[in-house]
Structures are given as structure tokens and as C-alpha cells.
Design goal:
Layout lengths: L19 E3 L5 E3 H6 L14 E3 L2 E3 L1 H6 L26 H6 L15 E4 L3 E4 L1 H5 L5 H19 L8 E5 L1 H11 L18 E6 L2 E7 L4 H20 L6 H18 L3 H8 L4 H25 L2
Parallel strand pairs: 7-9
Antiparallel strand pairs: 1-2, 3-4, 5-6, 8-9
Helix pairs in contact: 5-7, 5-8, 7-8, 8-9, 8-10
Length: 301
């Protein structure tokens, strides 16, 4: 910086003497301001326009560069969290102290919903915005999903099971009664023990139970998975391995998500490395080599 440009202190306007500092952004600061004006905690440059963020002084330039927590909407200092495949960023405080959505695992902000029943149900504003909230809507989507299975996959269960929307606690009880978790559908997010659906057949009584307040696309994926189990009840031998049983049902859910244009949700299923994910990959590979007729043939033997 030339002598003319650095003639006066940019903070107090005093004429610069022999001892002064010029920072990397061109700010010229006299010796007195250097001692007395507080510095930004990020860039260490003195400023009279500091904003306190989480108890820490930040200058306007650094404030603009900081990520903002999608939950509390405060700038994030230090590390931030990204949950699943969402691009949103969350601060450590929100992730560790706020209730988390049962579906996507994001921390709940003021618009999040909490429902009390036999247990507590948490839904973030995004997941709740498309949630299936009434029995009538659920029945309509359920029938539409059944029709999609018939039209797109030639998959027709011998009977259309009755549909019940239930709390998560009831689903867990149903699995305990069956003494098996073989027919569980786990969450598409990070929590792998979140049961979403259950198919139960007792002689001629066929019923499907789905967790209440699921987003529409997830509801249809769970319905498709459980309807696939209903199809297996009369078309597939009981001796099939769990990987084939669940892999086929997961492939049906995956195919329905693609049909609905939910590519990101479908891709989440392929990234799982558990029984469901391995089974799904087997059927995806089979579809590439033998087409959908080959899928149904393998699922039936």
C-alpha cells in the first residue's frame, strides 16, 4: 500500500505515525486501535462491526462465509453435520440436543411436529409436509400402489390385505408376537431399527400394518414392500432364504419409487449393506440380465 493510501487509520481516522499495521485485506490500523479494537475470532482482523455469534465475535466478511444451521438458523462455528443425502447443514448443538425426526433423522425446529400416543412420534416440517394424515388418504394411496404393482410389475397378490395405520410401538409389538423381524422394513434414513411396515397372514385373514404419518412416497414404498410379501404368501415357497424374500420385496419398493419419480429415495435403498440391501442388489443385477420376467421367476422358486 502506498504512503498516500495508508495516511490515516481506517478505524479511527487518526493520522498514521511510524508504527501501524496493514492487514491482508488492506485495512490500515494505528497502534492505538490495534491494542483496543476487538478482533474477529475467525480472521483475527480488528473491526468495529463485530456480531456476536454463539458468544463469539465475527466480522461481516466472515459472517457471510459461515454455513447456517438449517434448524436453529444460526451461523455454524467449527464443524457442522450433514444427515443422509440432504445438502442441509446442522450445528452440533441442534444435532445433540433437539429431538430428531423419526424418518430423516434431522433435528426438529419450531415447525417440527411431536405426537404423543403409546409412544412419541417425531416429524420434521419437511417430512410432515407430505405426510399421510388421514385413513381415507392412506386407503386411496394403498389401492393406487396395488394397481401400480399390477400394471408395472404384473404383481397381483391373491387377496388385497386390509390396511391399518398404527403407531411404531404397535408395529414393534406385532413383530414380537410373530417372534421374527424378517418382514421388517427399516427407515430410509440413518436409523436402521425403525420398523415401518408388517404383513400378517393368519389363514384367510390378511392384514398390512404401516406406521402412521409417513411421507407419501415412503408410504407407497412400504406398502409396495408389504404387498410383495402378500404376493409371496401364495406364489413363493416358504423355504426361500431371508435374503431372497426381503430382496424381492425391496426390489418391488425400489421399482415403485422409480415409477413415482423418486430417484433419490430409490438410490438410498441401493446404498444399504444389510440383508435388504444385499437382496436388492441381487435382484437389480438379475433384472439387468434377465429382465422383469426373470425377477418374477426367481421370486417364485
Amino acid at each position: 500500500m502506498s504512503e498516500k493510501q495508508a495516511r490515516f487509520c481506517h478505524l479511527c481516522g487518526a493520522r498514521l505515525q511510524s508504527n501501524y499495521l496493514i492487514y491482508s485485506n488492506g485495512l490500515a490500523v494505528c497502534e492505538r486501535c490495534e491494542r483496543r479494537v476487538p478482533q474477529c475470532s475467525q480472521c483475527k482482523i480488528p473491526s468495529r462491526q463485530l456480531t456476536m455469534v454463539r458468544g463469539t465475535p465475527i466480522c461481516p466478511d466472515c459472517l457471510q462465509k459461515l454455513p447456517v444451521c438449517a434448524c436453529c438458523h444460526e451461523p455454524v462455528l467449527g464443524n457442522y453435520y450433514i444427515i443422509g443425502d440432504s445438502p442441509l447443514k446442522y450445528c452440533e448443538t441442534c444435532v445433540k440436543t433437539r429431538p430428531r425426526c423419526d424418518i430423516c433423522r434431522a433435528p426438529l425446529d419450531a415447525q417440527g411436529k411431536v405426537f404423543q400416543g403409546r409412544g412419541t412420534t417425531y416429524r420434521c416440517a419437511s417430512c410432515f409436509s407430505t405426510a399421510v394424515t388421514t385413513s381415507g388418504e392412506a386407503q386411496q394411496l394403498y389401492r393406487a400402489t396395488s394397481e401400480l404393482l399390477a400394471q408395472k410389475l404384473d404383481l397381483r397378490p391373491a387377496h388385497l390385505p386390509g390396511l391399518h395405520l398404527v403407531e411404531r410401538a404397535i408395529l414393534i409389538e406385532l413383530h414380537k408376537e410373530a417372534a421374527s423381524l424378517i418382514e421388517a422394513v427399516t427407515a430410509l434414513g440413518a436409523e436402521q431399527q425403525h420398523l415401518l411396515g408388517f404383513f400378517r397372514r393368519v389363514d384367510d385373514d390378511w392384514q398390512i400394518y404401516i406406521e402412521q404419518l409417513l411421507p407419501r412416497a415412503l408410504f407407497q414404498a412400504v406398502a409396495a414392500h408389504e404387498l410383495a410379501h402378500a404376493w409371496q404368501a401364495t406364489h413363493a415357497p416358504a423355504t426361500q432364504s431371508p435374503e431372497i424374500v426381503e430382496g424381492f420385496a425391496e426390489w418391488v419398493a425400489y421399482s415403485i419409487l422409480l415409477t413415482l419419480g423418486e430417484q433419490r429415495a430409490a438410490a438410498r435403498l441401493t446404498r444399504r449393506n444389510d440383508l435388504y440391501g444385499r437382496g436388492l442388489q441381487h435382484f437389480i443385477a438379475l433384472e439387468r440380465s434377465q429382465g422383469r420376467p426373470g425377477i418374477l421367476q426367481r421370486a417364485a422358486r
